[in-house]
Design goal:
Helix content: 10-25%
Number of helices: 7
Number of strands: 14
Bound molecules: guanosine-5'-triphosphate, magnesium ion
Shape: elongated
CATH superfamily of the largest domain: P-loop containing nucleotide triphosphate hydrolases
Length: 321
């Protein structure tokens, strides 16, 4: 996943105005069309800056020259650069321009050159007036730096292999990689559950704040989240310790993350029979107040978690989308 990149943008040059005459020797040369503009568009369906960084140089089309019969040249085609929410846009010298945080908001970042005027527009008395025209404005260019802060309503955190990606996939139509080993997920990844954005995070281990495991680079992406979904696999026996250790790690990583509203999700419930599960639940209730038990292989569990998450998120604030 690419979350920062530098790009250059160049607007289109304006088309030239032309000199032309009709059959009665009257000026009828049209104006040039304006050059293409560059827009930056916030797009919920773009998850990172990979595509943008591959193109790197964005050049809008030049305006077309004017034509006879007073016809204005065509406007050069604009370019729209789609970027994810929330992306900060900086000038090449690192001064901030704008933070893109709204879906489909279109920011005109560079305007194309204006078209020159043809002799019809500039016509005056006598030949001199009829022989005047102006050239189109030059194009302009600029360097930009883009920096993505992924935004999600709910973030899924837990030890490696806890089943985070499996749950995020089950709640959405995402198909992120799931595997029976640790650190399958290497970068934050987003998924959509109805109106809500979910963020699947890399597995977290103790000492991550000191650089262990995959570190804590992901934290910058959790800034706007409203709910922490703390995933703990029922395969573990010491659930209370696991929970406490991870909370302790969070307290070292970020105060904001530590104090986010939280829902504990015990995963892989299908390793127990229904009968065993009743007992397990009774035990859990002794140590935990607010939790959900689920298996991604049970449709009713997935639906229930979806419902709980939606209730929580709607009671906290509006959805991101
Ligand atoms: N039995 C059972 N296995 C599950 C369940 N959910 C996930 N698994 C399995 O647990 C393993 C880990 O699942 P992932 O979803 O990759 O776990 P993760 O927490 O995203 O792992 P990392 O990305 O490495 O941190 C995979 O083999 C899954 O098939 C579940 O509800 N029941
Ligand atoms: Mg994963």
């Amino acid at each position: 996943m690419i979350d920062t990149c530098k790009i250059t943008i160049q607007s289109g040059k304006g088309g030239d105005g032309v000199i032309a005459f009709d059959n009665n020797r009257k000026a009828d040369g049209g104006d040039g069309g304006s050059g293409g503009d560059i827009y930056i568009v916030g797009d919920l369906n773009v998850y990172d800056l990979t595509k943008v960084s591959k193109v790197k140089n964005f050049v809008a089309q030049d305006g077309h020259n004017g034509e006879k019969h007073k016809q204005t040249g065509k406007h050069g085609e604009d370019i729209e650069i789609h970027i994810p929410l929330i992306t900060k846009i900086y000038n090449g010298d690192d001064t901030e321009i704008f933070t893109m945080s709204r879906n489909l908001f279109k920011l005109k970042i560079l305007e194309g050159g204006k078209g020159g005027l043809g002799n019809y527009t500039l016509r005056g008395e006598g030949w001199e007036g009829k022989l005047t025209r102006t050239k189109g404005e030059e194009s302009s260019s600029k360097e930009l730096k883009l920096e993505l802060n992924l935004k999600a309503d709910a973030i899924f955190l837990g030890y490696p292999n806890a089943g985070k990606s499996s749950i995020v996939n089950s709640l959405s139509n995402a198909k992120y990689k799931v595997a029976p080993y640790e650190f399958t997920t290497l970068n934050p990844q987003l998924a959509v559950m109805d109106r809500y954005l979910l963020m699947d995070l890399p597995g977290l281990i103790e000492g991550a704040h000191k650089g262990r495991g995959l570190g804590i680079d992901f934290v910058k992406h959790t800034k706007y989240s409203k709910l922490l979904v703390h995933c703990i696999s029922l395969e573990n026996t010491n659930l209370k310790k696991i929970y406490k250790d991870l909370k302790n790690e969070l307290s070292h990583i970020s105060e904001d993350l530590y104090s986010l509203p939280e829902l504990i999700v015990f995963t892989k419930a299908d390793i127990y029979s229904d009968e065993q599960m009743k007992k397990v639940k009774r035990e859990l209730e002794k140590d935990f107040k607010d939790f959900v038990v689920m298996s991604v292989f049970r449709k009713e569990n997935v639906e229930n978690l979806k419902k709980v998450l939606k209730e929580r998120l709607s009671s906290i604030s509006n959805s991101t989308i």
